[in-house]
C-alpha cells in the first residue's frame, strides 16, 4: 500500500469504521430524550440523572489520549474490537440495571469502550487513505456521525414512547454486532512501527488530569465554581497535567509530542474547533427542553428536531469533502463557521410562539456550516501529525472537541441557569428554581400555577436566546482564529525528527 494510492479496499474500510462510530454517536444522543423516563423508573434525583450523562463523558474524555497511544502501540484494529466488545457488554448490562447507581457505573464502562473506538477510527483513515482523499473520507465520517446523531433521538423517542428507557441501550447491541463483523473482516491491523514503550506513570497522570478537568468543568454549574469538591478536582487535574507535561518534555519517546502545538496548522485548527464545540455541544440539550417543556412536543417529536441538523451536515459535507482541493482548508473552515454563526442567529431569535420551522432553519444552517468546515479542520489537525502517531493525533483531536463540549456544558449551562433564575418571579423556593422542569412541577401544586408556568417558559426562552447568542460569538471567534492562524493551502505533515526517533529507539 503506497501513500499516494492508499489501501485498495479503503472505501469498504470506511464503511466498517463508520459503523463503529455510529454506535457511539447514537448512544450519546439517544439518552437525552430518555432522561425523564429514567428519572421516573428509579425515582432519581437531578444530580443522579446528571451523573448518568456525565459518567460516560468524563470517562470517555479522560481516557482518549491513553487509548490513542495504546492503539498506536498494540494496533488500531485491536483497539476497535476491544472497545466495541466493552461497549456492547456494558450496554446490555445497562439495560438490565437494577438501580440508578448500577446504570451510572455501566455508563462509565461504556465510556471506556468509546474511548478505545473513537481515536482508532480516525487513525485508520489516516493510514489507509492518501492525503488528497482524506477530506472526502472525513466528510463521509462526519456525515455518518450526524445521521447517527439524528437517529439517536428518533430511535430513543420511539422506544421510550412505545416500550421503556431500556430500549435506548439495547439498540446498541445489533449495531455493535454489525460493526464488529465489518472491522474484523475489512480493517487491516496498523500500528506505530517503532512500538515505543509505555509510560505507566505518564498514563496515570494524563488520565487523572483529563478526568479531573472534565469532571470539574461539568460539575461546577451544579455545585458552584468555588465548591471544595470542584476546586479539589480542578487542583488535582492541574497538578497532574503539569506533571504530565514536564514528564513528556523530558522523555526521549513521549506519549504526546507537545511540539505539535508549535505548528500553526495543528494548534490553530484545534483551537478553532474547540471554540466551536463550546457552542454546538450543548445546543440539542437546551433545545430539547425548549421543545418538550415550552412548546409541548413529545419525546419522538423532539427527536425529529435533530433531522435538519443531520441533513445540514450531510449536505455541507458534500461541499466540505471537495472544496479544500480548490479553495484550501482555511477558506472552508472560515466559510463553514460563518454559516454556523448564521444558524445560531436564528436559534437566538426563538420565542414561545416559534415552532418547528424556525428551529429547523437554525439547526440546518448550523449543520451545513459544520459539514463544510469539519473535513478541513480534521484534515488540517491530522495532517500535522506523522502517520505513525495517528492514534495519538486522533486522540488529541477528539480531546480538544470533548474539552470544548465540557466547557460549553459548564459555561453555557451556568449562563442559562443564571439568566433563567434571574427572570423568574420572586419568592420561589430554591429547589423550584433549579430548572424549568422543577419550576413547572412546582407550578402544578401552586394556587396560581398557570401564570407561574407561563412566566417560567418565558424566562427559559429568554435565557435560551442569551445562550444561543454566545453560540454566535463562538462561531465567529472560530472563524477568526482559522482566518489568521491557518495557512491558505494545505501542506504535508512534518516528518518526525530523526534525532528524536533515534533517541526513542535507544530508549
Automatic annotation (TrEMBL):
Quote the protein name from its UniProt record: MFS transporter
Which residue ranges run through the membrane?
Answer: 12-31, 51-70, 82-104, 110-130, 137-156, 162-186, 198-218, 224-246, 266-287, 299-319, 331-350, 356-382, 403-420, 466-486
Determine if Transferase is one of this entry's keywords. Answer: no
Provide the GO MF annotations for this entry: transmembrane transporter activity
InterPro entries in alphabetical order: MFS (IPR011701), MFS_dom (IPR020846), MFS_trans_sf (IPR036259), Sugar_transporter_CS (IPR005829)
Bilayer disposition of the protein: Multi-pass membrane protein
Its GO CC terms? plasma membrane
For this chain's UniProt record, which GO biological process terms are given?
Answer: response to antibiotic
Q: Where, if anywhere, are coiled coils annotated?
A: none
Q: Where is the Major facilitator superfamily (MFS) profile domain?
A: 13-490
The alphabetical list of record keywords is: Antibiotic resistance, Membrane, Transmembrane, Transmembrane helix
Q: Where in the cell is it found?
A: Cell membrane
Q: Which CDD domains does UniProt cross-reference here?
A: MFS_MMR_MDR_like
Primary localization: membrane
The record's SUPFAM superfamilies line, in alphabetical order, gives:
MFS general substrate transporter
Pfam families (alphabetical): MFS_1
